[in-house]
Design brief:
By secondary structure, the protein is α+β, with helices and mostly antiparallel strands. The chain is built from 14 helices and 16 strands. It has a nine-stranded mixed sheet, sandwiched between helices. Strands 14-13-15-16 form a four-stranded mixed sheet, with helices on one face.
Length: about 375
């Protein structure tokens, strides 16, 4: 095997793309700071039980494990930074009231999430801790939309759902107490025939429950779905409250394209406790941003906190954008003349890219477009356009 080959679903990022990813990182972290979010940087590796404390879906299957040579305990390479940020909020900062944290770092998946997915992601995100109201969800979705807009994404669409809707229907029927996860999977894939036969597999399931679940699979589309759900679903307090939250959120963010799918919980049913959202856009085969409310995630760290947030992969975001433009640069000759060195320092201090050619170096600069050169005229170093 050639030593330069990489493991499957891992890739090098070449100069122009790496530069754009870094520029996106800086842009978004600066954006989050203007909203009052504080930057944290947790370690790449932690004890496994800490990384998996948030639970939720297939996080354990996505986490690479290894043995710590110092303690003998099992470590995990993070597959998601959200549990780490929750640990920092609950255990290290331990503040009263609202805390806003943002982060950016590499995460590693044991297996790719899909056929077109990479195993290494550059995850960036923001979390609000300490506020249980829909106001925090509104701010998080607003920030997520502004994130993709700043990146140059056009016509983003927000897909909404709320786990309290199917949960209320399931909890209202004691016969489904042990079948919640199966029912959620059937709803997410809209397997109506299997839903219809639930009463055969779980004796005692009421016919009106089955009908409500079947109806739930039809409730997707634009925001009119929320009003339609009020008409066709049973009037349960938790269900009505969830629909009210969705309606409040949509009204608070006018001018954006929303869709609603009340049946699709994906793998986050046991993890999310409130509004869940994904952001899609033309040019990307999957969601660009995923987020939602996950109250109680800090319980494993000794402090239960309301929490809502989002994250996205900067590498995937960059891949769908137009090719990164080359940067304009100045070509300078090699030399040790103090006046030349001073001219180089002054130009770079102004933000100019100045490439000083080494002796015998061929002018091969794939990422830069050299349109000017630094030349000495009458004993003075000046900039001259290259025609």
């Amino acid at each position: 095997m050639s030593t330069w080959l990489l493991p499957e679903s891992l890739a090098d990022i070449l100069p122009a793309e790496a530069r754009r990813i870094e520029e996106l990182r800086r842009t978004l972290l600066d954006l989050y700071r203007t909203y009052g979010f504080e930057l944290v940087a947790p370690p790449l590796v932690e004890y496994l039980e800490s990384l998996l404390s948030a639970g939720g879906g297939d996080l354990s299957l996505r986490t690479c494990k290894l043995i710590d040579q110092l303690s003998g305990r099992t470590l995990g390479v993070r597959a998601d930074m959200t549990p780490q940020v929750s640990r920092i909020d609950a255990h290290l900062l331990n503040r009263d009231g609202v805390t806003r944290l943002c982060y950016c770092g590499s995460v590693l998946h044991a297996k790719p999430a899909g056929l077109l997915s990479d195993r290494e992601l550059l995850q960036i995100g923001a979390e609000v801790f300490g506020h249980a109201g829909v106001e925090a969800d509104i701010q998080i979705i607003e920030l997520a939309l502004e994130s993709v807009r700043r990146a140059g994404v056009q016509l983003a669409r927000v897909d909404l759902n709320h786990p309290a809707v199917p949960r209320a229907i399931i909890d209202a029927d004691p016969a489904l107490a042990d079948a919640a996860q199966e029912v959620i999977e059937l709803l997410s894939t809209k397997e109506v025939p299997a839903i219809v036969t639930l009463a055969q597999r779980y004796p005692g399931v009421r016919p009106d429950t089955v009908q409500a679940l079947v109806t739930l699979t039809t409730l997707y589309g634009d925001t009119s779905v929320i009003a339609r759900a009020r008409e066709v679903l049973p009037h349960l307090p938790a269900l009505d409250a969830a629909l009210n939250e969705l309606q409040t959120l949509v009204l608070a963010l006018p001018g954006h394209d929303f869709s609603v799918d009340l049946a699709d919980m994906g793998s986050g049913y046991g993890y999310h406790s409130g509004v869940v959202f994904s952001i899609y856009a033309n040019g990307w085969h999957d969601a660009l941003v995923r987020g939602g409310r996950y109250d109680g995630v800090g319980r494993a760290f000794g402090r239960v906190r309301p929490a809502t947030g989002f994250s996205l992969d900067l590498r995937k975001l960059s891949e769908g954008l137009p090719p990164a433009p080359v940067a304009k640069a100045i070509l300078a000759p090699w030399g040790t003349d103090p006046a030349l060195a001073e001219a180089l320092r002054n130009l770079r201090a102004k933000g100019e890219i100045v490439v000083q050619m080494l002796p015998g170096q061929p002018p091969r600069l794939d990422e830069f477009s050299v349109d000017r050169e630094l030349v000495q005229e009458n004993g003075v170093w000046t900039i001259r356009a290259i025609h």
